[in-house]
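Model it.
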Amino acid sequence: MADLKERLLPPKPASAINLRDNSFRPSASGRIPFQGVDVSGLKKRGQGLRSWIRVDVTGNSQVIEVDKFSMMRRCDLPARDLRLLDPLFVYPSTILGREKAIVVNLEQIRCIITADEVLLLNSLDSYVLQYVVELQRRLQAAGVGEVWQSEGPDSGRRRGSRNFDNMFGNTSPDYLPFEFRALEVALEAACTFLDSQAAELEIEAYPLLDELTSKISTLNLERVRRLKSRLVALTRRVQKVRDEIEQLMDDDGDMAEMYLTEKKSRMESSFYGDQSLVGYRSNDGGLSLSAPVSPVSSPPESRKLEKCLSIARSRHESVRSSESATENIEELEMLLEAYFVVIDSTLNKLTSLKEYIDDTEDFINIQLDNVRNQLIQFELLLTTATFVVAIFGVVAGIFGMNFEIPMFNNPGAFKWVLVITGVTGAIIFSTFLWFFKYRRLMPL
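Modeled.
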């Protein structure tokens, strides 16, 4: 991995190395020009150059410096698609199929996939480096790059057509063209990353929730709140990836648009067919390629033959493209379905964890309600006892008045007052308890 980082790092420009020496050279006026200013850096920022990692069909990788407009012309992409790859902005996961490229924005993997190469923003993120290493390993093991290698125009045409027929004639479900292999590695990296985060969240969540059920404290509640926030954010990201894959699976037109190798081979076959037709007309009719040909002066036999060949070729290409498009859509649909199952399993894990958190919260609320009910019952008993004790205060207040009663002269009168007041208070307290039980206000 360290060797790959050194190889993928952009080389330091020579102008930046010699900048210190050149900056201290005095000019004719005796002033030091551009002292402390990195001229090469200013030029790069002015042009908007960015470092990209390019992986071709043979598995070879290199670092290239390309500006935004060159990348737009190279991949035939609008500016809004390149904004999805900007690391300064946070965009949801997206997979877009364009005319000559596939724009992939899946978590850390942000790349442009064409029929010949994969372009990633140069980054030292471990997931990006793992993606490059895994893509190189699969491409070098499969040898997909032999299809488009050629030594000359004629030999390339013959070899390309033969390899193309062999490749697209293969109905094995294990075969995938270059762009789908790159897309598969990106989907695998994104699904693996999200699944690992979900697993880490599960490992951290279940012990914490069990601890919260046994001991309700402010610290445990705060930890559960943070955990739930992370769960909601991760669930939103997983749901977005799942919806993006499901949207692609539901739209056959988008899936057919993503088959870049088929488009490229179709354009090459039509180009070679036009070249052969022009060569036939120049050889048989004695016409020059540079001179314009009048349809009136052309031989009628050559015109009929040209018309028949064009009609036959167009019919053959339409039938073949429709059949291959149907097969390729099925291949891509199976690929997307496999990773849809994986990301749906991750979403189910997060959903189960959220349900467990909700159940824990309900259990805690039930416990708190039970404690609250017990406190209310205790308060009710305490209020009743206070009422009974207040009777003694009323009796003491009555007998404390400043008037004479013959009862004061009897030594045993105080004892009977206490007995009668206590019995009366006990009867009143028992009456309240029976009323509470009758009304089911407390379990007695």
